[in-house]
Design brief:
- The structure is a single chain.
- By secondary structure, the chain is α/β, with parallel strands linked by helices.
- Helices cover 15% and strands 32% of the residues.
- The strands form two sheets. Strands 5-4-3-2-1-12 form a six-stranded mixed beta sheet. Strands 6-7-8-9-10-11 form a six-stranded mixed beta sheet.
């Protein structure tokens, strides 16, 4: 069974049942000593692209926004061993769509949406048909949508579990913001920094 370690802010480490280790937006928290098989970066802001932070297994691949979204009209899908990664839209006033992505990760029969830094995107209504199991949504209200908009995105996407992240700029977590999300969003799941959850 796949699991996630939420490292805080926008940083996560996923591990598949077969032992494949995927870091998303490395920047903050603990757990980077476990060697990566895959490192994913949603955009090039410094709080998301610390690709030298995780230890790397032999053959580790790094797939960044410019690799997965090479032209304004192209979002790529690629399989890395037992994980398939699909780039999707991410955008707002601080994050232009041609420089940012979110990711769908398919692993161990679980579909995970890592939204990256974003506000509501046109594509989110299409994601509802994908039957996403876990959606990780930002909600700081400064560089991204606020918690209220994130809760509305959760309603649009219809994931089985909606997890608020990136709740305070440059901080691991925002407890008050997370609690507000839990009151507003359907299927809310609060995962705090350093917590591991089986998916």
């Amino acid at each position: 069974m796949a699991s996630v370690l939420y490292q805080g802010h926008g940083s996560m480490r996923f591990t598949t049942d077969a032992g494949t280790v995927i870091y998303v937006d490395p920047f903050m928290g603990k757990g980077y000593d476990v060697p990566a098989n895959l490192i994913l970066v949603t955009h090039q802001h410094g709080d998301h692209n610390a690709i030298d932070l995780p230890a790397r297994a032999k053959g580790c691949e790094v797939w960044q926004n410019m690799d997965s979204h090479p032209t304004p009209d192209t979002w790529l899908t690629k399989t890395f061993g037992d994980v398939t990664v699909e780039a999707v839209q991410a955008l707002n006033g601080n994050h232009p769509m041609d420089k940012c992505v979110g990711y769908l990760l398919q692993m161990d029969d679980v579909l995970v949406y890592c939204a990256g830094d974003t506000s509501t995107t046109p594509q989110m209504s299409e994601l509802a048909s994908r039957e996403i199991d876990y959606a990780f949504l930002p909600g700081d209200g400064i560089y991204n949508m606020n918690v209220d908009e994130a809760a509305e995105c959760a309603r649009i996407i219809g994931a089985g579990h909606n997890v608020p992240i990136h709740l305070k700029p440059m901080q691991p977590y925002g407890e008050a913001e997370a609690e507000r999300f839990a009151r507003l969003a359907p299927n809310a799941l609060l995962i705090r920094p350093d917590e591991v959850v089986e998916l």
